[in-house]
Amino acid sequence: MAINRPAPTDRRQSATALFWWLWQDYLRHRKGLLICAMLLMAIEGSMLALLSRMVQPMFDDVFAAGDKAALYWVGFGVMGIFVIRALTSSAQRILMTMIQQLAAADMRRDLLRHLMSLDSSFFQSHPPGQLIERVQGDVGVINSVWGSILTALSRDLISLVGLFSVALWIDWRWTLIAVVGIPLLVLPSLLVQQFIRRRAGQAREIAGRISTRLDEVFHGINPIKLNALEDYQAKRYDGLIDESVSAEVKTSVGQAAVPALIDIMTGLGFLGVLIYGGAEIISGEKTNGEFMAFFTAMSLAFDPLRRLGAMSGQWQRAAASVERLLAVLNIAPTILSPPVPLARPDGAPEITLQNVEMNYGELPVLRGATFTAAAGKTTALVGASGAGKSTIFNVLTRLVEPSSGMVRIDDKPIHEMKLTDLRGLFSVVTQDAALFDETLRDNILLGQTAIEEARLQQALDAAHVTDFLPMLSDGLDSPAGPRGSNLSGGQRQRVAIARALLRNTPILLLDEATSALDTKSEAIVQSALDELSAGRTTLVIAHRLSTVRNAHSIVVMDQGRVADQGTHEELLARGGIYADLHRLQFSKSKEGADDQ
Ligand SMILES: Nc1ncnc2c1ncn2[C@@H]1O[C@H](COP(=O)(O)OP(=O)(O)OP(=O)(O)O)[C@@H](O)[C@H]1O
């Protein structure tokens, strides 16, 4: 991973600093392969000069003087040049593809690891589509561009040096006339660079917004269909696509400008040489062969020159992408493990919150929350929507950091534990079980390979997963589908419970784990949860008070504070918020029963 990453703000300094970053982190350790590729490119490039050099004996010795022996050596010489070019060109392409792919893979791996280390709040301001575009799109641009630049510098530069040497050898004055206009290109190409970098940055940013839109459309396909939003979504997408086309075209205008200027300058050079050199040939001072060799060298110099001219524009395009990557890579996570962490507690621990305050931006969400969840027992969190119940779970697992107060697990402050140790204490089962697009088995094992089949079966039975496996074509090896879409809500939750059983953590967090289920599925999932919570410190969030009345303790939350804590009976007897909630729910369910 990068150690000294350049700050992406200073554009002038950043062009070299950015290349340095690329070199240090991703290319330096492959310099052996790179040198091989560059040598092959250099050989490939030098073949052009040889080719142009062969034109002179072809005209003067073979065609003009009629030398038959020369016919063969010139013919075989040209043939040899093409064979060497073919071999070196294909070998360097294969090598370069390999190096580029390896470097891109490293970059993507590093980026993903870095992104996953960032605080959860980062992902709220950076939608998935934009991040996907950085990991895939920007890395792709950078890799294709550095490859082209390296090729231009190794192969095309050598070609140019060789071709100009041939031209100089034929006539230095002709050569001077041909290239006299080229220094005039420096100023326009410098001006165009800033323009390209800006436009390329915009184009990449729009690409990120397009990916976000697509991500939202594909994830929300059912609500889109149900609300007849196809036209609305298509129009929003059209708007972005139009912006993207315009930004890409503007970038390519900038990129095309320098090669176009080179074409014009080369044309002028030819005109000058033809007028000046033509007179020398007519007067017999120079041979046709010399002119043709010069002409061939200049013609062959055309393409390498254009590619070298386009190089700065391409680099600006890559630099825009590098800046976007560095903008993310330079963000550091704020929620970290302490340098000297405490050991994690053993067994089912007690959990204590003391005066915990927590804000989302300006919004105070927890305002001095204080309660204790007894070790190995079930504690319920109840309260109105938005009271801060789920936020407590996020504070416990350090997905968010409180602004003040103390959270302890068995008397150990959670911020003094290693993050992986802390999170390893919890299993979280929510209403929205996060399943991956893998088989059910993979979704349950989550990479654990040492689990015996008997233990897996035990977990499947306890979570009531076994009940629905016969309905699936491949049983446990059936695909769960994207986000578990091949399963029903209740089935997804049972998979999540089986997962939690195998994780076998001492603390269990259940966030509305049964709220989306019908009565029968709820009963099944509830019995699986009872099995799961036995002997663990369990915190349950539930709106339906009937599901928490047997909890060891019930914490009543109100606007970020703990309004009360006690057993169901104690809270009813005290007649506070809990008793009001209970009366409300009880009268509703009674009305429901009366209606039937
Ligand atoms: N990531 C977030 N960014 C900004 N505000 C948030 C975020 N998550 C929650 N909030 C706000 O924090 C407050 C508390 O949310 P929380 O999810 O903890 O409530 P809750 O008691 O669990 O509600 P519910 O019972 O509806 O799930 C709400 O006002 C919510 O809008």
What is the ordering of alpha helices and beta strands? HHHHHHHHHHEEEHEEHEHHHEHEEEHH
How many helices? The count is 18
Structural domain count? 3
| Strand-residue proportion | 5-15%
Could you list the spans in which at least 5 consecutive residues all have pLDDT below 50?
8-13
Q: What is the 3D shape?
A: elongated
Describe the structure.
There is one protein chain. With 596 residues, this protein is of the alpha/beta class. The protein folds into 3 domains: 25-329, Up-down Bundle (ABC transporter transmembrane region fold), CATH 1.20.1560.10; 345-425 and 508-518 and 533-596, 3-Layer(aba) Sandwich (Rossmann fold), CATH 3.40.50; 429-504, Rossmann fold (3-Layer(aba) Sandwich). Helix content is 63%, strand content 10%. The chain is built from 18 helices and 10 strands. The chain has helices at 11-27, 31-64, 68-117, 122-125, 128-170, 172-179, 186-219, 221-226, 230-282, 288-329, 389-396, 419-423, 440-445, 453-462, 489-503, 519-533, 568-574, 577-595; strands spanning 351-360, 363-373, 378-383, 404-409, 412-413, 426-430, 507-511, 537-541, 553-558, 561-566. The strands form 2 sheets. The protein has a 6-stranded mixed sheet, sandwiched between helices. Helix 5 (128-170) runs antiparallel to helix 10 and helix 15 runs parallel beside helix 16 (519-533). The radius of gyration is 35 Å and the shape is elongated. Bound molecules: adenosine-5'-triphosphate. Adenosine-5'-triphosphate (ATP) is lined by residues 124, 360, 363, 365, 383, 385-391.
